[in-house]
Amino acid sequence: xxxxxxxxxxxxxDVQLTxxxxxxxSMFQRLRREYAHYGNSQFHGKASDVxxxxxxxxxxxxxxxxEGWGLTTPEALATGMPCxxxxxxxxxxxxxxxxxxxxxxxxLYAPVDQCLTGVKGSWRLPDxxxxxxxxxxxxxxxxxxxxxxxxxxxxxxxxxxxxxxAKKICRILENYL
Length: 177
What we know:
This protein is of the alpha/beta class and 177 residues long. It has helices spanning 2-9, 26-35, 50-56, 72-78, 91-94, 128-140, 142-159, 162-176; strands spanning 17-20, 41-44, 60-62, 83-86, 100-103, 105-111, 122-126. It has a 3-stranded parallel beta sheet, sandwiched between helices. It has a two-stranded parallel sheet with strand order 1-2.
């Protein structure tokens, strides 16, 4: 995402990339060393209150390799923030075009064991050009972003609450009993 942002916007001052992490992993530290000197990129390690990010930023970019059921995308959607997210894993269960934009997956792969020790296999990487296009589009179409965020927030409120989840579980259990 950082490389895609740099290629899409260069040193433009009217756009800002914020990379926030709950821990300062070696990858986070490497990215900060490499890109923090650009005036339109900020790095926040040990981020504590994600609500601040959701309320002060325009769009969430989540170019994940695999996502079991991460909370950042649904949380962002709940606050009315549209997302640009990888077309893989759990988001395929709840993310829709009306909530933002998909990042297509590339033909490049990374070994899983670089992230999960002792796990074999490969993950497909998000396509950088797809990310660049979606980021540019989001910057150029802020009213559409606002509209997608409103739709997403309503959908999350109606479908991803604890009450809704409990109802779905009960329906599944009733089918088996």
